[in-house]
Input
Amino acid sequence: MNEMTPLTAKDFATDQEVRWCPGCGDYAVLKAVQRTMPELGVRPENVVFVSGIGCSSRFPYYMETYGFHTIHGRAPTFATGIKLANPDLDVWIITGDGDALSIGGNHTMHVLRRNLDCQILLFNNEIYGLTKGQYSPTSRVGTRSPSTPFGSVDRSVSPCAFALGSGARFVGRGIDVNKFLPDLLKAAHAHKGAAFCEIFQNCLVYNDDVFASFTAKENVGHQLWLKAGEPMLFAGGTRGLMLDRQALTLRVVDVEDGGWEKAEVIVHDPRNKAVAHMLVDMPFGAFPMALGVVYDDPAPTFESAVRAQNDEAAKGKSTDLQELVSRGQSWMVGKEPHKS
Amino acid sequence: MATASHYLTPEEAGADIEPEAVVMRFAGDSGDGMQLTGGQFTLSTALAGNDLATFPDFPAEIRAPQGTTFGVSAFQINFGSAAIDTAGDAPDVLVAMNPAALKTNVDDLKPGGLVIADKGEFGARNLAKAGYDADPLEDGSLARWQVIAFDISQLTLDAVKPFGLGNKEALRCKNMWTLGLALWMFDRDRSPIEQWVRTKFAKAPGLAEANIAALNAGHAYGETAEIGGQLPHRTIDPAPAEPGLYRTVTGAEAISIGLVAGARLAGLPMFFGGYPITPASAILHHLSRLKEYGVITFQAEDEIAAIGSAIGASFAGSLGVTSSSGPGIALKTEAIGLAIMAELPLVIVNSQRGGPSTGLPTKTEQSDLYQALYGRNADSPMPVIAARSPADAFDCAIEAVRIAVRYMTPVMLLTDGYIANAAEPWKVPDMAEYEPFEVAFHDELPAEGEGVNPYKRDDKLARVWIKPGTTGLMHRIGGIEKNVGSGHIDYGPANHQAMTDIRAKKIWGIAAEIPLVVPCLGEKKGALAIVGWGSTYGPIHQAVRRARAKGMDVAHIHLRHIWPLPTNLGDLLKGYERIIVPEMNKGQLKTLLRDQYLVDAESLSKVSGQPFKIAEIAAAIEEALP
Output
């Protein structure tokens, strides 16, 4: 393999047998990532996939790149060390709803606010799969599971709202089997900084069709695909979102004959954080599901700031080890031990 | 490896003079600046060529209510003209800046010892806060000691008056006044301290001059004041020492620069992930100022992130280091298991403190030995090394790095609150004498038709270290059991047996190249061996030396490598009739020795948050050898 050989999806697949349940949404995400990698202009030896624990966290074993399958919830911490040690590496974090938002919520928050340059793919299936079906922090109230036989009572967390609240500079949403997933991955990769992607992923064993209300064929009208500079239209362009300037909320409006301007449908500006918050907070049902790049407003990255400060502080200083051990106030002891 | 520091005993130096030593304790309110006074007195002592050992002892509260007994902060220094191994059992001189400091410290003072008290602080309010019904300076209750009391507060106010400071600021100069008096008592040069004050207050020259005026006033008071005659005024001769360049070093400093030196000898950049915790934070602070040595420091969001980032950095080809104290090490446990499983180099420094739980954050203890040896799920062997003194911590840090990279394993380096904070003179090592142990990353492509096996091993069973970015060697590692031959996931029963055996054998194999242990005092067999590890070195050494001087058949054995243990330790121990293991825990090394060698090791335990006194170990020797 040399620099000129164009890579294909195959070059990013390992010889290992993939061990997810037949029909799991993870297969679709894996294919999408393997298909997208050759288009990113990266070499496999410069890519590292880091994961925590859970079904999705087996992901690195199937990518012909460097990979580190770490411990539950902590993938962002390992990724931080990897990126600080070698900023040239292209770092991807693979995580799930339990991994990133329950046991690892703290690290997810900090890797986002620090803005480490990496891609975070959160596979949200609203359930603990690997441990056989307990409800997760993204499960909706009333979820019946082995640990909540009478239904869960705690309110769920919205991954994208959490990410925005933590200071993420890129927030996007995709669906495992959807054809636009590679576009989201490309946009996340193009963003310099922590890029947070929530991927709705179907767990057909423990939580089948939990997203069917907007992923099923008959429900695609409930998908709002956000595109920079384009009006926020859905349901085949017959409906759109407008901003109620009095209440400071979004409202669904009907659009007749493509007259979105007349209906005051707003245009998507990925740098508008206030609207991004509204988009990820919209209650589904009354509103569509916002998908695509919700927010994208780059800021300086953590590893570049750390490296720059290190270089600046080191400028003009000795790197001699003997100088280091001799620092501070010192004194000589002569040949003759004291006293004449 | 070079011996970084060795002090000649008077016998070794052939000196025929009576060695002199003084133990002095400065005690005051935690806002009184006693640690600073002690630190500067230490510097001046070192510059005078005395050997010394210090013991800073401060409360966990940053500013405990003024005048209370629990807010008392103390700094003890033992210095003399012969080898000094401990901070001293009982002070000869106690400087008490208020009634609470007197109350909590005076009982430790030697009979006939000297109390210097700030009379200005002995008002009714402070006396009541300290729990005194009557003024102890007046009621004769201190008759066992010599007492000199004068109004240090007022004398300080007078001295700094020309600088126009507010009352509160002016009183802050009290510690410098006290330092000035102490310098006069031992005939010390004031100029290095003046220089230090000017640097410290470079941005506030007025404050610098006020502090220097207080320092000079304290000194002049000793020289001229009417009660000066009561004060001892003496010169302690320099201690004999190997010729060379010396500096003072605390354990935290020695570990920091030792880690940097280790990384350099390994040819690696260093990454340090840390999270604030007492008393380990000092290492993070030191390292964060050494960026020119290729050190990246990262203050993580928690202990787990600190070690996770360090392991990540090791995966990426740096030397990963993390550090904490017991409760933080507990949080890192799962990640240590991953480093053992993934076989990545990592140094974990544990600055032990009193526990369990939050315990005694600022006090010393050695009770994390079980945690270091056994505190993980499953069979997860890990090398453990312990530093015995601040200066020794330098070589121990290098040794920890060497083992970590040579064997592709996490290594735990044990130190404690005492070593971390205490200072001692250190003969500056000649770095040219240290053998480099440069790391060679694996970069050979596998043979045609073969996959990359990250668990390919060398003759020491260490696996290959492949740096991400290396073409053609992409591989995946993680916490799941891997196949012994291919490195792919493998849950097979025979494979797990084989991998578990290899992990144990690899660590056990380290014993083959660590030095055999020899008694640091005494014979290789006999009536009694005192076996120690870590910071009990000083008091054990002095107690054994004194007992031997009385003709007693006792040896001192001190362990640096605690896992694996030196290969000859079992045979050595079996040559003694009795074995006593003094530890600042309930007998953890004792249990290990009994387990490994079926010897009748007995525990001498102390868990008061204070180091052993020489007398306590001496008493155990006397009792064992009637």
User: Anything to note?
Assistant: Chain B touches chain A through 82 residues (CB under 8 Å).
